[in-house]
Structures are given as structure tokens and as C-alpha cells.
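W.,

You were right to be curious about this one. When I first looked at the sequence I had no strong expectations either way, so I just let the prediction run and decided to look at it fresh. Below is the sequence, 193 residues in total, followed by the output.
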Amino acid sequence: MHNLEQTIRECQQGNALAWEALIKRYQGKVYGMAYYFLRDKGEAEDASQETFIKVYRKIETFRSDQDSFVPWLLTIARNCCIDRLRKSKTQMKTKTDAGETTAEIAVEPDGPESTTSEQQRKQLLYQALDQFSQENKDVLMLKDIQGLKNEEVAEILSMPVGTVKSRSNRARIKLAKMLSSLGQFKIKQSGSW
């Protein structure tokens, strides 16, 4: 398998196999980011696809000597999700203003897979994360769930590395306490969930 820099160069030259390899390598990270923001499987899949379309259109502008690829990719994914959320809120407000009731525009419940233990654990994690500020949620998601380095998180969120470290430490401690009080998670020594 090619190294990332070579794969990106080949994508920039129009190599379809390199593009396919790039998508396979990062589709999980992009989907994870999208699901974190959108909390809906279909929406996350659509946002992931939209992200890769934007990456395809912008890959020529990426310079590996200036940027690292994962923060660049996840910034695009994050922005796609934020745009979708804004659009969704605008549509909900428009529908509500038009006289529809909230029940008429409520999201349908998840399918049978939502009853699994793993799905319940994810829901509890997301409920706990909802109690954090957006900045702290983003730091936790990027650093601890996506596994990015402090420098990469700082680049994506446009904040100093020291701020990322301190927010991450405080948020991890708070999250660990919240989840352990629910009795649903075993907190590993490494801090992974």
C-alpha cells in the first residue's frame, strides 16, 4: 500500500484507484465525525459522501508540505455537518412558522438496531456529551474518539495546543465521572471509551 503522500499525489493526478484507496482509508473517520454531529445514520452517510465530493473537488489545493491531511479532511467533514445542521434548523423553523406542529416534523425513532447494547452505550455517551460546551465536545470527539493528536485538534478547531490539552483533560475527567456514575462504561487507563 502506498504511503499517504504518494496516494494524495496520485489522487491529484486523477488516479481513480488512489482515490478509492483514500476513501477506504478515511471513510470511517469521516463517518464517525458526521454521526457525532448529526446523530442519524442516513444523515451521517449523506454528509460523508458530501465530504468526499468536496475533497475530490479541492484535492488539487491540498499541499502536504503545508497541511496534514487528516485535520484538513476532518475540517471539511465538520463544516459539511455544521452546514447540514444549520440547514435543518432553518427548515424546521420554516415548517414550524408555516403552522406545522413539532410532532409533525419530529425525527422518526431508530430502527431495531437501536435496541442493542452498543447503541444504548453510544446514546448514553452522546447524552453525556450534550452536557458539555461545543468546544469541549469537539475536543473530546476529535482527540479521544477520533484519536487525533493535540496539534491536529488545535489546527481543526483553530485554538492553541495548550488550550486543547487543558480542555481535554478537564472534559475527560468530567465525562469519566458522568459515565461511571451511570455504570455503563469501563474507563480504560488510556482514556479510550
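Here's what jumped out at me. The chain has two domains: 1-108, 110-193. And, maybe more interesting for your project: The chain has a mean pLDDT of 81.

Coffee later to discuss?

I.
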